[in-house]
């Protein structure tokens, strides 16, 4: 499996990650992240990295700043 993860998640893994990103939660809590990682067959770190990169991609496509700031800032 290390050969697959070295070049990134497989198509099946990306589908699981994308589904969870779009339909479940763009900001999963640690428990949810662990469950998504287990479902996709990835490590927690790989899953967290994917969500961070995907969120940055999504924010850019939405014309939002790359970092989240509080509404009161």
TrEMBL record:
Q: Which residues bind DNA?
A: 12-62
Q: Where would you find this protein in the cell?
A: Nucleus
Biological process terms from the Gene Ontology for this record are: regulation of transcription by RNA polymerase II; trophectodermal cell differentiation
Q: Which GO terms describe its molecular function?
A: DNA binding
Q: Which InterPro entries match?
A: HD (IPR001356), Homeodomain-like_sf (IPR009057), HOPX (IPR039162)
Keyword tags: Developmental protein, DNA-binding, Homeobox, Nucleus, Repressor, Transcription, Transcription regulation
* Domain Homeobox: residue ranges: 10-61
Task: Say if the entry is tagged with keyword DNA-binding.
Answer: yes
SUPFAM superfamilies noted in UniProt: Homeodomain-like
| Keyword Transcription appears in the UniProt entry | yes
Q: Give a GO cellular-component term.
A: nucleus
Q: How does it assemble?
A: Interacts with serum response factor (SRF). Component of a large complex containing histone deacetylases such as HDAC2. Interacts with the acetylated forms of HSPA1A and HSPA1B. Interacts with HSPA8.
Question: What name is this protein filed under?
Answer: Homeodomain-only protein
| Originating organism | Myotis davidii (David's myotis)
């Amino acid at each position: 499996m290390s050969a697959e993860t070295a070049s990134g998640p497989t198509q099946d893994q990306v589908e699981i990650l994308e589904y969870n990103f779009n339909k479940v939660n763009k900001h999963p809590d640690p428990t949810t992240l662990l469950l998504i990682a287990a479902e996709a067959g990835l490590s927690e770190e790989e899953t967290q990295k994917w969500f961070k990169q995907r969120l940055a991609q999504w924010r850019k496509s939405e014309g939002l700043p790359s970092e989240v700031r509080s509404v009161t800032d």
